[in-house]
Structure formats: C-alpha cells, structure tokens
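Entry 14. Structure prediction run on the chain below.
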Amino acid sequence: MNLQIKELILYNRKGEIRRLPFQVGKVNIITGKSGTGKSAIIPIIDYCLGRSDFVIPDGVIRNTVSWFALHLITGEKEIFIAKPTPNKNAMSQSQAFLKVGENISTPDMNELFFNSNDEGINKYLSSILNISPNKHTPPEHHSRDDLEATFTHTKFYLFQNQSLIANENLLFYRQLEDFIPQTIKDTLPYFLGAVREDDLKLKNELRIKKREKKLLEKRLSNIDRKSDESNKKIENLLEEAITVYLVSPEVLSKNLPEKLEYLKRLISTWSPNENFTLENENLNEKYKERQNLLNSLKKVSTSLQKIKSYNSTINSYSNEVTDQTDYLKSINLYKEIENADTCPLCSSALDIAPPSVQAINSSLSKLSSELENITNDRNNLLLNEIELENQKIHLKEEIERVNKKIQSITSTLDSFERVKEINHKQAIVIGRISLYLENFSFESNVQIEELNNRLRILESEIQNLEKDLHVENSQLILNSLLNIIGTKMSEWAKILKLEHASFPYRLDLKNLTVTVDTDDRPIPMNRMGSGENWLGCHIAALLSLHRMFIKKSRPVPSFLILDQPTQVYFPPEIYRNLKGDIDEINDEDTVAVKRLYDLLFQICSELNNKMQIIVLDHANIRDLKFQSSLVEDPWRNNNSLIPPSWIESN
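Output returned:
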C-alpha cells in the first residue's frame, strides 16, 4: 500500500505551529544554504516514524521545538503521528500521539497526549502497509535468531542522509550500525517479493508439524523404552509378590498386558490373613508352674539321694556287724549272754565280772539291739525311697506335660508373629504395586498403530511443505528480481553517465554494495573513482529498488529522501556558500546536476506519481520543473526550518 508524507509539523513551546507541506507522487525540493536545518529533516521524520533514539542535532531545534509531528497519507486514510522532544538531557523518547482518519486537521498542541508508543506505531504502520506475517529463519549452522520484517526495516530504503548519499563503502541507511547489515540481507528478499506471502504461514505450519513429528517420535520411543522398563518393573514387583506368597511363579511366563491385569486384580482382592488366633493361655503361668515342678523335683531328688546315701551307710555297717556275728557263731565264740556275770567266751560264772567283760557284754547287747533297729530302719528307708521314686517319676511327667504346653504356646506365638510379618511384607508389596499402577499408562497395540499412522502422515505433509518452501525456489526468484533491478540500474547509469556505464550494473546483496561486471573483473562501488560515481550508484540502486517495490505492490513506503545529492559536483567551500542559482558556476557541473534531477522527475513520471522523492539541497536550478517542485522559497536570509521568531522568543 502506498504511504507518503503530506506534511512535516513542528510545535514550539508556546504551541505555535510550523508546517512543511509536501506533494505526494512528485519530486519535492527544499533548497537553501548551510545551517538552515535541512539535514535535520531525515532524523525528525525517522523519529516520528517510531525511532526512540533522538538523533536530531542539539542546538536551536531541540531548544525551540516542543513536539515533532508527521502527517502521512495512504489512499483515502491519513495518519498523524506526534512525539515530544525528550526531557532535559534524555537521548530517547518512545511515547507518542497517534491519530488515524480521513482529512485529519492539524491538532493544537494542547490536544496532543500520549496514546501510543514506538512499538505501537511500528505495529500499526506494519499493518497499514499490509506487511504480512513473515519470518526469516537463518540456516541451521547460524546462531542468530529468527527475524520478522516490520515497518522499521523499510527505513533502510527511505533515507539517504548527507554522509551516506555518496559514500563509497555504505549503500543503505544505518548500514554501519551493529547487526543492521545482516538484517538488511535477511529482510530485503521479503520486501522484494522473493518470499511467498504465505511463507510464514507455511513455515509455522511446517514448524508445528515438525514439532508434532518430533513429539510423536519421542512418544513412540518412550513407549518402547517404557514398555521395556515396565516389563522389568512389573517382573520385579511380581517377584517380590512371589517371595511373600501373594502369587505363584507361573505368572512370570505371561505377557505384559496379562501381567498388568494380574497386578490390578491382586491389589483389588488382597486383604490381610486373619485365620491365625493366639490361644488363651498364660505363658508366664506355665513357666512358673514348670519352675515349681522343677523345684519340687529337685527337693525329691535331694531327699532320695540322702536316703540312698544313708541306706548305703547302714547297709555297710549292718553287713560288717552281721559278718562278725556270723563269724563268732561259727566258732562258738559268741553266745547270747543272758547274765552279765557270765564269761562271754567260755560261759563260766564269774565272781566278779571284770570291766572289760562287762563292756564286751554291754557292747554285744547293744550291737544286737542296733542290728535289730537297723533292720527296722532299713525297711522304713526302703519304703521312703520307693515313695520318693514315685514322686520323682510323677514330677518328671508333670514337667514333661508343662513343657509340651509351653512348646505349644510358643509355637502358636511364633506362627502368629510370622503371619504378622508376612502380612506386613505383603502390605508393603501391595503398596508398591498400587503406587506403580497409579502412575502407569499403557498404550495398547491399537493406539501404537494409530501413532505410527499419524507419524507417516506427518512425514508426508512435511515433505510437501518443504518442497513448497524450498530455499532454492526463493533464491531463484530473488536472483530474477535482482537481475531486473540490475537492468534498470544499468539503464540509469548510462543516463547519469557513470563510469563503466557500458557494462551491467547490479545490486550485490551479499556485500550490500553496487558492482559493475566488466569484461575483466567485477568492480565494486568502493573501487570506482569519484563521488559522482558513488552518488550515481546510490541513486540507481535505491530508485531501482523502489521501482520494484511499487511494480510488485510491496509493503514499503513510496518515498525516498535524498540529502544534498549535488554536493559531489562542487568543491566543499563553494557548495557550503551557495546562495542562489548554480547555472553560472560551471557548465559541466550544472549539466550533471540537471541530469540528476531530470532522472528524478522521469522516475516519478514513469511510476505514475506513485513515488514521492524529497530532495534537500544547496543547489537551485533555473528550471521550470525544478522551481515548481520547491516546497518553499529557498532557505536563505530568514527562511529556515525554525522560524526566526521562535529563536528570538526562546
């Protein structure tokens, strides 16, 4: 869409307005001497068009102007943009006033307020020019980010300031700044139309499909990996379940879905084993009972041992007495004594019994009595021994009975503890299985096949999109457009009588310069001699680009501002002091200047007034076309961008 400048407007601090009107579709010339503010026009327009950096020269302009405004026109719609001078020593300002409508009248300064900013201006102007969604994606081996062309990127082709217009090393506006050269290379193919209008849509679609493909491949890979991991995990869980008697080992031979289904049934049916009960017996009481029996057995055993020992002693003594008695009887030396006065040996009567005889008789009598008593005691001991033996047997039987009961109780207790332990272990395994199943997702074979089918479809769609977006196709279109641009540049180089004009001129996008292809070798702009040739290269390249923009209805504003193009034809001291017509200075230089302006007029005419060219110059030519293209009377004497009254009242 065609976008041109209708008016440049300045507001001073009192709200007074300075208008600088332009004709659309024509050559507009502002001529005047040095120091009148001509070179400030490009940075002012750039500032109003959404540049935050304030590069307008310090001094009179910054001290007197409060607001800068630009009145644009595109078809029947008009756009008014105003931005204030940055506060104090600030070097940037992004807030702005934006108004859109038909037949907009210039608002008073008190009507200006912030309703937008530079980003908003850039977005709006991008949309009004119909800059379609686009994005340049660098090759994979490049590290720079993707870049989307916007209105801001069209400015490289709108301005040729004084230091640029005849520069042998630079061709485009701001080309010397960091990253700008690569930005021009990345975005110019779009502005020329070498990139399909639906390129971004297709690229986004391709990017989405590639991303979906990548995710699908990752998902299928994860399914395979997860299937292996799941099978291993499920086998581990089943092996744990086998060790705690939850399942039988045969389940390990099943396939994954069957194993999974088995685990699901297991956690839904499992409950703790409660079939074991503890007998209602007091184990401590049994231990006490056994101890009492053991104590009794010990006492009985001790008594029995004493009886046996005592009985053994008696038996030994009794046997000895009995043996002696039997011996005496056998030799008739021993007789039972009835009278103490009788001799125990010969049985004769004694008148007086000697003491020894009495003693013998007494002892024998006593021995006889003791033998009788021993016999009686031995009989009693035998009875006691038998009774104690019986008690001992009974106690052992009781102890055995109690031991069996204790063993039974202990066994029951052990079984109960084992059951509790198994239940606990089973509960742990069931918990692990449950947790695993809660986080487990399993794709069936049908789902996997659906994913594979979708992957095959995506691969086919991606292949078709890549064919539509083939880089070689875009490069072929770009080369063709550059050839057409080069043809026009070569034609205009002849009109301007540039050096090597008999050879083809071309725009070298790789090096951002103009190159002439001679028979011997290509000659870049910086190896051509004289500022006139450098100027001619700039004019030919920029106007050829704009011609292509307009012919192909590309989204680039249809205006070009040239700052002091004729400076190359005159020595600097003469050019700075020009105060009037140049016709009488030098016939050859004057002819060259007229040749330049005739080309500018010719181009505007050929493009059916769709191109606006604004020239800021020192030269003034006595030519009807030139004079009719003056925006104002030449800026000399009191004429300048800033009215003298503003300076006096400041």
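The CA atoms of residues 395 and 413 lie 26 Å apart.
Filed with the rest of this week's runs.
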